[in-house]
UniProtKB/TrEMBL annotation:
This is SbcC family exonuclease. GO terms for molecular function: exonuclease activity. Residues 421-475 form a coiled coil. Keywords: Coiled coil, Exonuclease, Hydrolase, Nuclease.
Length: 653
């Protein structure tokens, strides 16, 4: 029995809208301009499956709440939800589509990035159960007799499924430069290919554990079913039907309430006339209030000016009085020493500033004239203020009367509707409360169904593990046989791509990675050749899974197929590296042939009725793929607005 594992949708729950990418069986291509979010799609898929961290662009951080992915695993639909801002929050899993999540209580799992300290299981274990893969233990140091053991991790299995942008063509493929991590991944490879030394005994133990777990679930199901039966809890179909009826009733009640609210809007002739008169009167009253305040301020300013005039008159009068007391200015007449004329010397003028009394009297007369004018203005302002203030008070009293008349008119008109609306609102509240109770009951029923599904899942796992155990007992796979199958595929793959000088091709017994022309993968200097070999290595695992019963989900993600390779179109390489020229890797045909090999592997799976899915991210695609773009391309991003493309993953900025 082959495992089925594919993603159907990636949903980024946004502030303004949801950003959705839909996938299908077979080859799915995401391509377009740089820095548009292509690789982010693969990273988000990986993140919902429990990767430790994710680096997101500012556009996602400011536009999104969380990410969800819908997976079909062994014909069952699951939605995985994860917080993109806090990697330590549990991953929520719902046994339904994204839109139906509100009808279920989620199962919560710890991502692999935090220790198990809250009673929740790891999402890795949950995924292994869904895939019907045995939960075995592998050695952390296989070469040591006293090696420690650790459980097989889905995360390590997934490293054989996800060839990210840094890994494509990398010399450090699958951590081969890190002895500790490489050892664990090689043991994981043995687990995938059923070549672990302890596989038979471990699977036997796993079968026993599954039987016990299934018995516990069966008892749990029996207890809950009995409780529901004794409590007369309706079945799911009855609850769904009742919720639909209530929803229809809520829609009708809501429409009636809205109609009443519309009818309650005052539309009588008397009301409109009173309302118009009230508004006009209110405006006039506010105008009068402003004008009276302005007049009060004007009167106050005039009064201050009048006081200033009085003070000036008093001061000048004092000067005149002083002059009369002092008397006339004395004059001293002296003969000129040169001529016979007389010289008059006014001593006081030399020592004091003396203003003639006539000037002072004229100034007093002028001030008194201004004082009379100010008094006249003050009186006029007071009269105007009194008139406007009286009019304002009269308007305010009239406003109160008109407001009372409006309230009476409104009350007589609205009251008949209020009783009816209140009754409808009460019925609406009862319906909504009843609906909420039914939804809670539906979630409980769905929880019981989840137990039934888990029992069925255990039964499916038991069938798969028993078949695997029988196969191992009758014909235990030899890792050399596995390597031989992978070598044969690699040879055919390289031949179809048209790589020259194909010799000494094998899989290293030391690193479990390809050997080409007698050189270990990590020692090959050509980046383009490493790209081709790394992609072929992953495809060889899928080819192996199609032909043999191994623990592999038939799911591959490749980020940037054309890394280090010559292409056609917008991203064509114009100045290739010398060793790439020597290998002929800048030939666009090889780039085209890689896509052809990817399509071939999915066609092989389809011919054998085996589920498989390959998701590709690239900057451009070969021309022959563009001709049938609708069959393979799921996202096309372009910053210049190409037809049938988006500006990026977040396309509404």
């Amino acid at each position: 029995m082959k495992t089925k594992f594919k993603i159907s949708r990636l949903i980024i729950a946004g502030i303004r809208k949801n950003y959705i990418t839909t996938f299908h069986e077979g080859v799915n291509i995401i391509y377009g301009d740089s820095d548009t979010g292509k690789s982010t799609i693969l990273e988000l898929i990986n993140y919902t499956l429990g990767s430790k961290t994710i680096d997101l662009a500012d556009e996602i951080n400011t536009s999104c709440h969380y990410v969800s992915s819908e997976f079909v695993i062994n014909d069952k639909l699951y939605t995985f939800k994860r917080d993109i801002f806090n990697k330590n929050n549990p991953i929520e899993v719902y046994p339904c589509s994204f839109e139906d999540c509100s009808n279920f209580y989620p199962d919560k799992f710890n991502p692999t990035s935090i220790p198990l300290n809250n009673g929740l299981e790891y999402v890795s274990d949950f995924l292994l159960d869904l895939l019907n893969f045995p939960k075995l233990k592998i050695k952390t140091s296989p070469s040591k007799a006293n090696s420690n053991f650790q459980k097989v991790s889905f995360r390590n299995i997934f490293k054989y499924c996800y060839l990210d942008q840094d890994s494509v063509g990398s010399k450090n493929l699958l951590e081969n430069n890190n002895w500790v991590k490489s050892s664990i991944l090689k043991e994981t490879f043995k687990y995938i290919t059923n070549t672990l030394d302890s596989s038979i005994s471990e699977i036997s133990i796993e079968i026993a554990n599954l039987i016990n777990s299934k018995d516990i679930l069966s008892k749990e199901h029996s207890v809950i079913s009995k409780f529901f039966q004794e409590s007369n809890v309706k079945n799911i179909n009855e609850i769904d039907h009742e919720i639909n009826v209530i929803d229809e009733n809520i829609d009708v009640l809501t429409d009636e309430v809205n109609n009443i609210n519309t009818s309650m809007e005052a539309n009588s002739k008397n009301y409109l006339e009173l309302k118009s008169y009230y508004d006009e009167l209110n405006i006039n009253t506010k105008r009068l209030d402003i004008e009276t305040k302005e007049l009060s301020a004007k009167i106050e300013n005039y009064s201050r000016l009048l006081n200033d005039y009085d003070n000036d008159i008093d001061k000048i009068s004092s000067v005149l009085l002083a002059q009369t007391r002092i008397g006339e200015i004395s004059k001293e007449v002296s003969p000129c020493p040169i001529c016979d004329s007389s010289i008059t010397i006014e001593i006081e003028k030399d020592n004091f500033s003396i203003v003639p009394s006539t000037h002072l009297e004229k100034e007093i007369s002028s001030l008194k004239s201004r004082k009379r004018d100010i008094k006249s203005l003050i009186q006029l302002s007071k009269d105007e203020h009194k008139s406007k203030y009286s009019e304002m008070i009269e308007n305010q009293n009239l406003l109160i009367k008109v407001r009372t008349m409006i309230d009476e008119e409104n009350s007589n008109m609205v009251t008949p509707f209020l009783t009816q609306r209140d009754a409808l609102l009460k019925e609406l509240n009862r319906s909504e409360e009843r609906r909420n109770n039914l939804v809670s009951t539906l979630k409980l029923r769905n929880q019981l169904n989840k137990i039934i599904e888990r029992i069925a899942q255990h039964e499916s796992q038991l069938i798969y593990l028993n078949d695997t155990l029988d196969e191992l007992k009758s014909k235990a796979p030899d890792i050399n046989v596995i390597f031989s199958e992978m070598k044969n595929y690699m040879h055919s793959y390289l031949e179809n791509i048209n790589i020259k000088n194909r010799k000494n091709i094998s899989i290293s017994e030391k690193t479990f990675l390809p050997i080409f022309r007698g050189h270990d993968y990590s020692t090959i200097t050509s980046g383009g050749l490493r790209t081709i070999l790394s992609i072929g290595y992953y495809l060889s695992l899928m080819n192996l899974s199609i032909k043999m019963n191994i623990n592999y989900p038939n799911f591959i993600m490749i980020d940037t197929v054309g890394k280090y390779l010559g292409k056609t179109g917008t991203y064509q390489i114009t100045q290739p590296i010398d060793n790439e020229v020597d290998e002929g890797l800048t030939d666009p045909e090889k780039y085209k042939n890689i896509y052809a090999e990817i399509l071939n592997i999915t066609e092989l799976a389809k011919s054998k009725d085996i589920s498989c899915q390959i998701i590709i991210v690239d900057n451009d695609i070969p021309d022959h793929i563009k001709k049938c773009e609708n069959d393979f391309v799921v996202e096309h991003f372009s910053t210049i607005g190409v037809v049938k493309s988006k500006i990026g993953l977040i396309d509404d900025l």
